[in-house]
Amino acid sequence: MDAAALNAFLTAEFPQVAPDFSVTEVGPEGVVLRLAVGGTHLRPGGTVSGPSMFALADLAIYCAILSRIGPVALAVTTSASIDFMRKPAAGVDLLGECRLLKLGRSLAVGDVLIRSDGVEAPVARSSMTYAIPPR
């Protein structure tokens, strides 16, 4: 699936998150997903909340997997870890750059670096494993 197909899939299958997230790139190693940061993503102190960053990482890996195997809505997270490293830039979208490390028949493993748009230093790093349902 390319970026347009992934965005259409998110709109159809996950309308609750589709307005906030968009796939901006699909490549041989993974995808880049954008979180359009708004008021609902902020925590006290004006920074992006941990749950919003976690959602970005989780959805980036999900989209990277679907970019390779097609629209399998029931692929699910089985393991997740996230490290928050620095405060995101204020008022700036976040980008989740996912790299798939393993894509098997029943499991996929990926890493995501989350950065503030236009800032090189990552704000968070996540590693996740997904279960892929049998076809």
From TrEMBL:
InterPro entries: HotDog_dom_sf, Thioestr_dom. Transmembrane segments: none annotated. Coiled coil: none annotated. Residues 45-118 form the Thioesterase domain. GO terms for molecular function: thiolester hydrolase activity. This is Uncharacterized domain 1-containing protein. It comes from Paracoccus isoporae.
